[in-house]
Amino acid sequence: MPQCILNIALDTPLNACFDYRWPCADGARPQVGQLALVPFGRREVVGLIVGVADTSTVPADKLKDALAVRGQLAPLSPQWLALAGFAADYYQRPLGEVALPGLPKNLRVLTTVALDRAIKKLAKDASVHDGTPLDMPRLNEAQQRAADAIGGARGFAPTLLYGVTGSGKTEVYLQACAQVLAREADGQILILVPEINLTPQLEGNIRARFPGVMLATLHSSLSEGERMLHWLAAHEGKARIVLGTRLAILASLPHLQLIVIDEEHDPSYKQQEGLRYSARDLAVWRAWQLGIPIVLGSATPSLESWHHAQSGRYRKLELRERAVKNAVLPRVKLLDMERDRPKDGLTSHLVAALKLRMERGEQSLLFLNRRGYSPVICCESCGWISNCTRCTSFMVLHKPEHRLRCHHCSLELRIPRHCPTCGNVDLQPLGRGTQRVEEGLQQLFPEARILRIDADSTRRKGSAQAAFDSVHRGEVDILIGTQMVAKGHDFKKLTLVGILNPDTALFSQDYRASERLFAQLMQVAGRAGRAAQSEGGSVSEVLIQTRYARHPLYDAVVNHDYDHFAGALLEERAQAALPPYLFQALLRAEAPELATAIAFLQAAQACLAHPAITINDPIPMSMTRVHNVDRAQLLVESASRPALQAFLKEWLAALRDMKSRVKWSLEVDPLDI
Ligand code: ADP
Ligand code: ZN
Ligand code: ZN
Predict the structure, then answer these.
(1) Are residues 561 and 512 in the same domain?
(2) How far does residue 376's CA lie from ligand 2's centre (Å)?
């Protein structure tokens, strides 16, 4: 029987692919890019064929037979394999660990028969929307210029669409998409959005605009069955628009012609566990590889993208005005909490502004990026505070549930009746989270319809969407929420945004904190005044309660001055030699004892040197202990990306050879350090 050797990537941390034997009757060989079922240890697993050969260097008696090849699935394209290969190489992970988790689970576990049935169902998939297309609104001049530039671009053309909040970036994407769909007979478009709670609005919009065009969505709240159908629709080229969150960047799209990254600055494009990739960065590589246009849109671009736009590597298109006629950017004011002392967390000025909106039937939004009732409870007589016993953090008071919760290890306790140290029964909440602000508002405005939106209030599937819908329908007077409410939403009746407690981020050790705070404030401020100002209606306002009213960051927010602020930050970064002028990787280690983790990092620090690389000393992570594990980190830096990449490859091999029992991981281009 003629046979061949399949080289197969498997989802294991072992940095290698594996050879298997496969009988090739009548000369028909499996193809690279197909999936195969193979024995691995005591299990049977699905792997990806990355090579087909006549011989193997593995001795014949050690070679095992592959069990099946998934013939009915078209092979993944060489371009897709190259994308997975690039990601594996760049983020220093085995190919199998990158390529296989990117595929729907069902493809990997289902038997051949079940897979067939899935594929048949797809043929009948009803995700094509019938009807006449909804009219495209007339674009304003700046929008039209942007849509034409994006839709008409050929070859690798990265564009930064820098448009103020409410400038109608979505409309630009959609009309650029329309141009591409009309021009490229079976062209596909990938649209990435940061978070799934923003997608339904956009999804509905796309369906209404492009009837007859199949849309597939890819995000983590799909069921496995749905995910597989949508993934296959993209893989087979049937879905012409794929809308998804960061994981969709690894979708198989054989006819990809355009990539859109909405809110490109958003940290959720960065995967924060396992393969810590940046979907935005991979998207730019993918567009380069395929020689297609990509557009990165934001009102507050990341400094990385802004830097590329300034240096001419990306083309910059600007939308300086709001798209809706007579809608203008809100007036931003700072409320000095030293002069106007807050009661129940609210200054008298903010209370008066809320009252005015209530009287006029307009909506208000209060933004506080801290959920729970209070971040800690304490005993005033002996000084006890509610520390988590497993983490370097506090137990947060959740009053409606009568619980203390650690947001890092999920430890839950009943609220103690008395102080565990001295027995005092009068334990006090310290500080303020969204639940406490909600409680204060209810007392202040008993007649108001108040809605809180945060991770706690939206635990049930679909409840976030229901909550946003009720805001859109005007059933809410005052909305209070965390960063969940800050992004993307087009709330038409909102004319007041109050921002509580943003000061802490001003003094963070993290050098990215001010970039992030600025973006967050601009985004949440951007929720106000999105409709035309009605006659007799309020001027839309953003009120920021602060103790540091003179801080230059707030000055930039007041003036809606991203350009200037970004320029100043970039200058600081250049002077301090920080990204984007420097490239970094972070080695993390964790162990039950901090000393063990540090010792491992010290060994790692000593094991390899390179003149173009700086290896800093190991330090405990700022939140050192989580769930009874101590964590430390070591930062590696270089002014040259290729030098860093080359160093990391060699270094990781050396680290693996150390065979330490300490759990460690490497992150390239870390966001949080
Ligand atoms: P952004 O994403 O830039 O914050 P959106 O795309 O959400 O802004 O658009 C803001 C609002 O402006 C939406 O309600 C949208 O329907 C509206 N809009 C966009 N373009 C136009 C246009 N050309 N004419 C009228 N309204 C528009
Ligand atoms: Zn006490
Ligand atoms: Zn904890």
Answers:
(1) yes
(2) 14
The reply to whether 204 and 91 lie within a common domain is no
Per-residue pLDDT at 126 exceeds 60: no
Provide the residue range defining the domain that includes 336: 331-374+431-571
Same domain, 473 and 594: no
Of 571, 606, 621, the residue that ends a domain is 571
Is 107 domain-assigned? no
Please name which ligand lies nearest the alpha carbon of 491.
1
**pTM as predicted:** 0.95
In the reported structure, the alpha carbon of residue 387 is separated from the centroid of ligand 3 by a whole-number distance in angstroms of 8
Q: Which residues are known binding-site members for Zn(2+)?
A: 379, 382, 388, 391, 406, 409, 419, 422
Q: Are residues 455 and 500 in the same domain?
A: yes
| CB 171 less than 6 A from any atom of ligand 1 | yes
Q: At what angle do helices 279-290 and 78-90 cross, to 10 degrees?
A: 140
Q: Are residues 305 and 213 in the same domain?
A: yes
**CATH code of residue 182:** 3.40.50.300
H or E element at residue 472? helix 463-472
3-state secondary structure 170-237: HHHHHHHHHHHHHHCCCCEEEEECCCHHHHHHHHHHHHHHCCCCCEEEECCCCCHHHHHHHHHHHHCC
End-to-end, the C-alpha distance of the chain in Å comes to 57
Residues 224 and 271 in one domain: yes
How many separate domains does the chain show? Answer: 4
Cβ 165 under 6 angstroms from ligand 1: yes
Mean pLDDT of 136-143: 93
Provide the H-helix boundaries in 32-155: 78-90, 95-99, 105-109, 112-123, 141-151
DSSP state of 401: T
ipTM of the complex: 0.98
515/615 same-domain check: no
Q: Is the CB of 166 under 6 A from ligand 1?
A: yes
Annotated binding site: 379, 382, 388, 391, 406, 409, 419, 422
Q: Which atom of ligand 1 is nearest to the CA of 526?
A: 4
Picking from 298, 300, 257, 265, the residue whose alpha carbon sits closest to that of residue 281 is 265
pLDDT band at residue 236 using 50, 70 and 90 as cut-offs? very high
Measure 31 CA to ligand 3 centroid, in angstroms. 49
Q: Cα–Cα distances in Å, from 45 out to 8, 67, 108?
A: 11, 10, 7
Of the pLDDT bands very low, low, confident and very high (cuts 50, 70, 90), residue 113 is low
For 247-303, what is each residue's pLDDT tens digit? 999 999 999 999 999 999 999 999 998 899 999 999 999 999 999 999 999 999 999
Task: Tell me if 139 CB under 6 Å of ligand 1.
Answer: yes
Nearest CA to ligand 1 atom 23: 139
Same domain, 239 and 259: yes
CA 673/CA 671 separation, integer angstroms: 6
Instruction: Tell me the best of 143, 162, 171, 318 to mutate to test the pocket of ligand 1, counting ligand atoms within 8 Å of each CB and taking the most.
Output: 171
Using the 3D structure, point to which of 283, 299, 319 is the last residue of a domain: 319
